[in-house]
């Protein structure tokens, strides 16, 4: 009667287990990172929303601030008003290199996008958890300013839609909304494809907050009205 496994059988079994682990572990790690980034981004977004309510009670509707596009002075003023509602360990305005890494951030498809550390029109602050929050005055007819959030600061990958996310203050909505949010489903879908799925990354924020994943980095057949994850 056979009472145990031979060495060959044990080695084969271990080999199969190793292959299965090698195939599934990267997916599990990705899902864990997505969930962690979703939770982190949602927390910062919630803080921004609460801060906005308090700021507008003190200074009036942001939609009426008459901000000037790419104005270093206006960007700094916005940052100064928001920082009171965060635990900030450092602020940067004219010289962003003290807060942001001196690297070229990548788009969702891996191409070079921008070196934020050399921007003179933006102001930022650094949080204790390593996240960076940056402000840019726009003064457009529809948006007052942009907010950028780098979830892990100086650590890689420094990529739009991966660890770097956009928010906008919309004047008509009188609210900060994630990049990629649109009242029209058609506009939301079209801009997700153009500004997240196929390039750039500034319209990925709404997808992550709405669907809880960054699968737009892994497959290209996603849509708000259809497939919302790779598998």
Automatic annotation (TrEMBL):
Domain spans labelled DUF6613: 27-212
SUPFAM superfamilies (UniProt xref): Pili subunits
Keywords associated with the record: Membrane, Transmembrane, Transmembrane helix
Keyword Transmembrane helix appears in the UniProt entry: yes
InterPro entries from the UniProt entry: DUF6613 (IPR046721), N_methyl_site (IPR012902), Pilin-like (IPR045584)
Bilayer-spanning residue ranges: 6-29
Protein's recorded name: Type II secretion system protein
Organism name: Candidatus Scatousia excrementigallinarum
């Amino acid at each position: 009667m056979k009472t145990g496994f031979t060495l060959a059988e044990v080695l084969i079994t271990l080999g199969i287990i190793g292959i299965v682990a090698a195939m599934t572990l990267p997916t599990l790690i990705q899902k864990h990172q997505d969930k962690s980034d979703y939770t982190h981004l949602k927390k910062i977004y919630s803080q921004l929303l609460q801060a906005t309510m308090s700021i507008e009670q003190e200074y009036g509707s942001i939609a009426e601030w008459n901000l000037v596009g790419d104005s270093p002075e206006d960007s700094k003023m916005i940052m100064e008003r928001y920082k009171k509602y965060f635990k900030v360990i450092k602020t940067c305005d004219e010289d962003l290199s003290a807060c942001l890494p001196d690297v070229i951030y990548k788009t969702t498809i891996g191409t070079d996008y921008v070196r934020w550390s050399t921007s003179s029109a933006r102001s930022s602050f650094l949080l204790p958890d390593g996240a960076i929050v940056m402000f840019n005055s726009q003064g457009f007819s529809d948006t007052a300013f942009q907010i950028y959030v780098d979830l892990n600061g100086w650590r890689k990958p420094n990529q739009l839609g991966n660890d770097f996310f956009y928010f906008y203050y919309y004047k008509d909505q009188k609210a900060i909304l994630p990049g990629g949010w649109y009242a029209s489903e058609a506009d939301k879908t079209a801009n997700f494809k153009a500004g997240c799925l196929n390039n750039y990354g500034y319209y990925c924020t709404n997808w992550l907050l709405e669907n809880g994943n960054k699968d737009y980095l892994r497959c290209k057949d996603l849509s708000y009205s259809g497939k919302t994850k790779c598998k």
